Every structure is written in C-alpha cells, then in structure tokens.
Amino acid sequence: MENYHYPGTDIQTSRLALGCMRMAGKSVAEAQAVIEAALAVGINYFDHADIYGRGQSEERFAQAFKQIDCDRDQIYLQSKVGIRPKEGMFDFSKDHILKSVDGILRRLETDYLDALLLHRPDSLMEPEEVAEAFQTLKDSGKVRYFGVSNQSVGQMKLLQAATEIPLVFNQLQFGPAHTLMLDAGFNFNMPNDFGSNRTADILEYCRLHQITIQPWSPFQVDLEQGLFMKHPDYQELTKEIQEKADQYQVSFEGMVMAWILRHPAKMQPIVGTMTPERIRHNAEGLNVDLSRQDWYEIYRAGGRPLP
Ligand SMILES: NC(=O)c1ccc[n+]([C@@H]2O[C@H](COP(=O)([O-])OP(=O)(O)OC[C@H]3O[C@@H](n4cnc5c(N)ncnc54)[C@H](OP(=O)(O)O)[C@@H]3O)[C@@H](O)[C@H]2O)c1
C-alpha cells in the first residue's frame, strides 16, 4: 500500500503507526530491534504519551533510536499529555501542557513533536487556555500538529471553536472486538443495546471534518479484559479472522489490520506489539484488499447481529 497523506498535515506515511506504551520495560537493544522492524516495513510514525512507563517509554525510545542509522526528519513523533496519574486527575491547563511538552522533548531528545494529543478529556478544560497553549507550542516550533484522544463530538467542537489550529487526530479504541463506533450506526433507532449511542457519531464527525481516527489497542477487548484472542467471548471471532487470514494468505494480525483499514474512514491503527515478528505480521494487512462480504462476516463474528 502506498504512503498516505494525512488530511490537514504535510505528513505522508504508512497507514500504520507503532505505539510505544509497552517499550518501558524493554532493554535498549530490544527497543532498537522493535524500531528497526517497524522502519523495515515502512512504519515511521511512533505514538507516545508522557505517562507511558512514567516517561521511561519515551526515554527508551530515544536511547534506542540513537543506535539506528536514521535521521529525526525521517520519522514522525507523536505524544500525549493531560493525565496526572499521581494526583488522580486530568489537567489541560496551559501551564501543565507547556511543562509536559518540555518534559517530552527532553526525554525523546528532540526539538519538536510532529503531533501532540490531549490524552483524556478534562472536564475542567478552559478551551481558550488550551488554544493559547497550542498557539505557543506552534509558534515556538515545538509542536507541528494537534489532536485529541478519547474525545466526543461535543468536546472536540468546544475546543475547536476556541482555536483556528485544526484538530487533525482523535485517538479512540477500535478493533474487531471493540466496535462501539459501528454498532450504534447499524442499530440507529432500534430498541436494543447495540443501538445505545455511546460514541455519539464520532466516526461520522471525524469523517466529515477529515480528522484521522487512530485506533488504539486494536487487539484488546477493552482496558481491562485483555486480548480478544484469549477471551472466551471472542473465540468465534478469532476463528473467523484466522479463516480469512488463511484465505487471503496473510497472518492473523495482518487480517486484523486489513479489517480496520478496509473502513473508508481511513484510520491509522496504532499497533502495540513489541515483538519484531508481530510488527511484520501486522504490516501484511497493508496489502490486503478485503471484500465487503468478508468485512461484514468478521464484524458479525464478534457477536453483533445486523438488524
Ligand atoms: N489514547 C489512549 O487512551 C490509549 C490507550 C491505550 C493504548 N494507546 C496507544 O495504543 C498503542 C497500542 O495499544 P496496545 O499495546 O494495547 O495494542 P495491541 O496491539 O492491541 O496490543 C499489544 C499487546 O498485545 C500483545 N499481542 C499482540 N498480538 C498478539 C498475538 N498475536 N498473540 C499474543 N499477544 C499478542 C502484544 O504482545 P507482545 O508485545 O509480546 O508482542 C502486546 O502486549 C499503545 O502503544 C499506545 O501508543 C492509547
């Protein structure tokens, strides 16, 4: 698959990104092998957050990247701010955003981020304050593009109304076992649980405004229940994906990616594996042309009947 030009940016890169949440516990050599495996399959967009391993993931990434013969301007670095785990709160104040970005740049050993996302909605957000923080970061050259994560339509509109800087990403969980964004659309105006619109048309909003959705944890059921492949409720789904993978002659992980990439919203899945071979397997999905019928069969195998 050709590199893709992400709307509202000059970023032209693979449809897959590598998430570095699980890099903290790795040695420099292991992290190096992971980054090299990603680069070898054309993945040069890396997702971070200041809280991953309490900053260790960013540090480990920088230590490993230094060992690789690749310049900073050949990769894209994204990180996220706004969660304060120690204090048990979210914080979108200007002061916290600016300080956090300085910490990120120091740990990643870089002068700039390609993208900065607000990690989880802060109900005490003052949109004008965030707008000022974004403008300061943009003017200083510390951040090129901005976005959000886990935000609703209303939250995005509220923030966007305060700034002319476009929000170009929203990072949301999505995968074959986590399809809330689709279920509500299929079951609109139906008296069943699938029709309960937990995601409030965020998929359609992002498509309308050319905001790229970055699906996080594509192999997890949710934050607590782990991998769907090991979950008793998703054995049928796992079997179906494996059958399709065999049919298209790709790996299981490649078929999961192909299913996400088949959606016309042109999402950018954030793959989280720290195993070089699995990174290669995920990338196999870039070249699969999944049929409409097969896409629907995988959707339904997740236990979600169509109305
Ligand atoms: N915005 C947010 O709120 C948010 C939340 C969570 C995550 N994220 C981002 O999304 C990225 C991806 O999240 P994630 O790591 O949960 O994604 P994931 O790709 O769904 O899961 C990766 C994990 O699953 C394991 N795994 C993958 N394929 C496997 C297989 N076939 N068999 C057995 N184990 C397998 C990996 O193990 P190995 O490493 O051993 O291969 C790794 O532990 C993160 O790195 C982070 O950047 C964002």
TrEMBL record:
**Annotated Pfam families:** Aldo_ket_red
Could you tell me the superkingdom of the organism this chain comes from? Bacteria
Q: Where in the numbering of this chain does the NADP-dependent oxidoreductase domain appear?
A: 15-298
Question: Which GO cellular component term is one of those annotated?
Answer: cytosol
Single Gene Ontology MF annotation: oxidoreductase activity
Q: What is this protein called?
A: Oxidoreductase, aldo/keto reductase family protein
